[in-house]
Specification:
The chain is α+β, with helices and mostly antiparallel strands. It contains 2 helices and 3 strands, in the order E-H-E-E-H. The protein has a 3-stranded antiparallel sheet. The longest helix has 13 residues. The radius of gyration is 11 Å and the shape is globular.
Length: 62
């Protein structure tokens, strides 16, 4: 099952996060939250959520 773990404010940020997480070996999907807004959900398999959160924190704070 896929779980939303982050909502990126732009497509560019969503792509950057997706690429970094994929490089780390995680399965990642993105999807628009709403067509009227430019926000994108970052989804990962629920079983990997804790691991991905640790990596995401390092990505966001680098």
């Amino acid at each position: 099952m896929w779980t939303v773990m982050y909502i990126a404010p732009t497509a560019k940020i969503a792509d950057r996060i997706k690429n970094r997480l994929t490089e780390e070996g995680f399965l990642v999907q993105t999807r628009p939250v709403n067509l009227s807004k430019q926000q994108f959900e970052i989804l990962v398999p629920s079983g990997e959520l804790e691991e991905v959160q640790e990596v995401l924190n390092s990505i966001l704070h680098s």
